[in-house]
Amino acid sequence: MGPHYLDRLFSPKSIAVFGASDRPNAVGTLVFKNLIASGFHGDLYPVNPKRESLQGLTCYPNIGAIAASIELAVICTPAPTVPDIIEACGEHGVRAAIVISAGFSEGDGKGLVYERKMLEAAHHHQLRLLGPNCLGLIRPSVGMNATFGKNAALPGSMALVSQSGALCTAILDWAETRGIGFSAIASLGDAANIDFGDILDYLAQDPQTKSILLYIEGIRDARSFMSGLRVAARMKPVVVIKAGRHSTGSKAATTHTGALIGDDDVFDAALQRAGVVRAQSISQLFAAAQLLSNSNKVSGNRLAIVTNGGGPGVMATDRATDLGIELAELSEATLKKLDDSLPPHWSHSNPVDLLGDADDSRYELGVRACLEDPGVDGVLVMLTPQAMTDAEACARAVLKASENSKKQVLACWMGEGHVRSANALFAQHQLPAFTNPESSVEAFAFLANYARNQELLVQTPSSLAKRSKPDIEGARLIIESVLAERRTLLNALESKALLHAFAIPVTMGINCRSANEALVAAENLGFPVVMKINSPNLTHKTDAGGVRLNISNAQAVRSTYNALLEEVESKAPDAVIDGVLVEPMQSSRHARELLVGVTRDPVFGPIITFGAGGTAVEIMRDRAVALPPLNDFLAHNLIRQTRTARLLDAHRDQPAADVNALAQALCRVSEMVCELPQIQEMDINPMFATSEGVMALDCRIVVAHTPPSLDPYHHMAIHPYPHHLIRQLQLADGSNITIRPIRPEDAQIEQHFVRQLSAQSRYFRFMQTMNELTQEMLVRFTQLDYNRELALIAVQEKNGKEIELGVSRYVMNPDGKSCEFALVVADEWQNKGIGSHLLTQLMEAAQERGYHSMVGEILADNQKMLELVKLLGFHISNSDEDPGIKLAERHF
Q1: Helices and strands counted in the chain (H then E)
Q2: Prediction pTM value
Q3: Would you say residue 620 has pLDDT above 90?
Q4: CA distance 355 to 343
Q5: CA of 324: how far to CAs of 319, 349, 371, 457, 674, in Å?
């Protein structure tokens, strides 16, 4: 992989500062002063036609007067001047700029004109710009402080990306007094060109950055944000803090789902799928980043607490309950081990209270016993300094007990003077230590949530599961007919037909337009029955008196039919009534009433929700949300997040509900969301869950027209696994192979494939000498964001295991219209047509995504590859940068 397209922004060798000045407190003065004071490692060129020199450096009237090459422009001049400056920079070969100036989209109407012209010039010259209206950028490793702030950044391994320049300056001041350093600080400002996705993509590959901190106020492009965030989170810890957690208003919604879901719920769900954690304060933001970068990984959320005081143990337990952290249930073997060695009055449970006179030997025993328990994922060790307590000796005992364990240990030595040496000891051995129970438990919660979210991140569900294929075309025709009638709300029969098309179990009824028709329907279905008003514009039938349950005889059917019509006409006189639905009455014995729904978030698109159902759904407010697509793992995780999950277990005479059937129904709803972008809102309420399966009793669906797109999943924040690209092929020699998109679980066969390549094949592919993929490369190559990259692998099954035979991949270029490709085939499988199949299918996939061209770098010595790409219609040219490299380009 060549240099990143933002290298010139983060590591420029030369900078031109437009608007550099010596006027007191002018932005240009402060920026230029900061660049000099920070000791920029490259060349500085002040640009100001009103000055001949500044700070001892020659001042230039414009960029054309500078003979040298400029890699980064920092612009501090008024907004009206910026478009012409960007144009001049582009003509001079500048490919990166920081526009600190304000007065663009945040200003009056004129500002929008300046922004449009600025972006047109930048796009024409393929120039990427940060801002406008931003604080700037700090990169300590190259001595670059291109901001107008008054604080410098210490060098470090954390990167901060913020939408607020003011918050950047506050964080810088806060961090400087605590000795906290940064690898980079980027203020996005209005993010007219470079946004979160671009910066995250760079920082994910930046060797100087070990963890990433984000301050977010709002998201413009959910797909780009999620794409960059998921790429970065695969490589290093990402911690997010977001302003505006509480909505100041409520939106009108035609479904219970819409009324239940808040913007912050959706944002949390997005962060979980991206594999990152969320902080609620600045101090938490840094503590979480440091903890995740330097600590052991935890495999679960079961915490054991070891303490010499009951009170602190109770406080820690309370906070654990608040955060959903499970107190580990100690095994019989662990309890016996503790019983045999501790005084009789110890707590005999978790928290493990060693009692007030506990010495270092008791601490070592308690910590070691908990760490050896397979039901424990982490241990919090607490100490209150009492008269007989040797705090430092107890700290040494904790270090000794945990030195060979891979489980996470956290310390909470409460107090100040008496525990100072112990805390210094913990710091020396990099064991996380805290001063109070709450922050200690919060730290473990960050680790547990991070582990859980990373597990969610590597899930790659496709748009369609491997189960029976749904009738997508039939469902689309139903929606098109509804929209053709200028309706948006499907009636009950249409809604249930959609569920049936996707194999979701649903009660099917008969629509009747007279009392006699209702009677015949009831006799055919068998008593008891349910009768419901069928109306295309009546959202909540129960509220209008449009539902009657448990009708058990013929006389009741006729009278109920007439009563339904009368009550609905009275309560909802504007309702259009298409008849009355007669359905079989489902037994509610042992049934749990659930809600499965879909709503459309203005930022992240379709959202799936699950929780308690029935008529009191908005009162119960027990729900969890997830971003589609879902697979079984993600569906089960969604279920577990609710209080309702506990009701699904067996209880007294009530057998456990079939949770697998429920998860399957959720996955089917996910398929509907993926394949039917017209769906705006959906309620399946109630859905009955019993030991025998699930059944949707009622459903309402809202649809809308959607603009056509080359990407069938343009409406989703997370691109599904491209299942449709899986192909079965037979080679000329009769060998059967499969070509499919790569998945995270292919890491092992990918590594084996690279190891088995000859030295020449590895050199031709990677253009460097190497024996195997680094862990970072392996993650990057197998955990893909299908929105911007694709890898197709050719595999063959042998003895029940897949063997990788070759791989082709493309990565989107910064222009979003072209992509860069690479291809390699195992030496023993070359000259069999695999390379041709892989590259041809890759080209087809790139065309399907809307790319205009594909380009790749090929070593001039790699004659076989050059012959192949020529055969497939690529144009071959010489590289301007390296005579040993050929460029292969194909336009679609």
Answers
A1: 29, 38
A2: 0.86
A3: no
A4: 8
A5: 9, 19, 21, 20, 31
